[in-house]
Amino acid sequence: MRVFIGSDHAGFEQKEQLKQHLEGNGHDVVDVGTTSPDVSVDYPDYAEKVARAVASGDADRGVLVCGTGIGMAIAATKVDGVRAANVTDPEFAKLAREHNDANVVAVSGRFVPLARNEAIVDTFLATAFEGGRHAGRVDKIDALS
Ligand code: RB5
Question: Whole-angstrom Cα distance, residue 117 to residue 133?
């Protein structure tokens, strides 16, 4: 799967680890930055890069890391065609795919340990959308502006 990944300074360390983890699992990973934990940057800039790649079809899925994952999810979801979920538990990653057809996952680099974020991202990438009764609801999300 082609995965775009991005973080701000607060998510940098885990972004680097998650990138290695995903590459180790055979994914084609594009890193949009940031490049250092020492320079404070604005998370919407990285959320936008990943979200636009997903919206254009250049990426199959997106992974974002900031302090909480909250700001990244809020920003990414503003791009048309992107459904970003802030996830702190692998079961929620599964449901975000099965029920919401989320195409971007935003995780916390400060409050969630790496091993759990690896499980979240793995689950997110491996789980299919269920469609069926959920499809019309997702269409309604996409129709909102
Ligand atoms: C940066 O200090 C922090 O606000 C950011 O990483 C993120 O948690 C925002 O949602």
Answer: 29
